Amino acid sequence: MAKRQGNPAAFGRLLASNAFESVADNATRTLLPVIAVASLGAGTAEVGLLNALGLGAFLVLGLPIGALVDRLPKLRAMRAADLARAALTLSIPLLFLLGSLDTWHLLLAAALLGIADVFFTSASGALVPSLVGTNELGVAYARLQRVSSLASIGTPAVATAGLKILAAPLALVLGSGGYLCSALLLPRTTGHVPPPATGPRQRFWHSIAQGLSMAVRHRSMRALLLSNMLLNAAAMLGNSVLAVFVISSLGFSAASFALVGTVSASGGLVASLVAPRLLVRMGIGRLKIAASLGCVPAVAALALAEILPGPTLAWVAAESFLWAFMLVLATVAGAGVIPQLCEESLLGTVMAGNRFFTLGIMPLASIAGGIAASTLGIQPVLWAWALLAGFSALPILFSPLRTWHQGPEPQGTNA
Q: What is the pTM of this model?
């Protein structure tokens, strides 16, 4: 693929937009379950459905939306998604003030928010390569990850403070304002004109099939897909047992578990800060392999927390920090691979095809982890978590990606 020059001003506006979008997303995810339970008396079934609707949109609609994004002006799609989410989140406090808010309103809003989120995420991921130089992709994705990590740390505290002042539905105005600011801060133009497509445009569903095929059949993309699937499966195994292990098995309070979550977010933030320098020093392939292998001792520290010397909670916190640190490094290391192997006109579709598999494994792994923990116990699931994370290094190790520094070697670009 041809080298591209960057547009630092436009990318700076995209960073600012993503900062507010991340704040709005985190606030909305924090507040919707609280509103459902505290204001509407929802039970576990309703809350579970509410939490699943966002991920469900990626699974059910991710592929067609990815193909559609390749046919739309990406900045307009992102701005429309922001404005739609701002209106949706604002509708909930308005319905509350009118005395008309019901659980089905929250479920409908969550479903529509999930669809808009898929549009924004698909367009944003496909837009980044047009705003930065080809050799700066890794650094660009690391900066976006840093914004997300900062939002993960700060937003829940702000949302909690809002809950102390306002009724839960009214606090959702924070999310609406964040989405509106995100829309206003998006760059007006990328300054980059994509090369004209050659030949007739492919049919919509044929382009989806091509995106899926390329994600699976291209040797380097397939290695990345398998690695990310294993890593995401490991993460969901961990999520299925972590709270029960820390609170029930180790006997710590819910407040202590929440503190561990803050430590974990801090690990992700630190990783996003050092990732650009590590990418330059180690290269994409070596960093991805090292980060995947580094997940193993992180989870082992948790599994052995009760018998290791020193305070048990300190080992739990260390695991959370190191796991998030390694997970973000692995994510950032692989983030620039697909844009360097895929034509820009197909980027949204191919990324959506990749997400179909890497996100699709997550609910399956979560269910499997819960079943395994109930039948075999939590400890075997913890060790399976560690082993799957370590195995995620193997697809990279046995593919051309292992030799990548900032991009593919000439012989490594073939399918």
A: 0.74
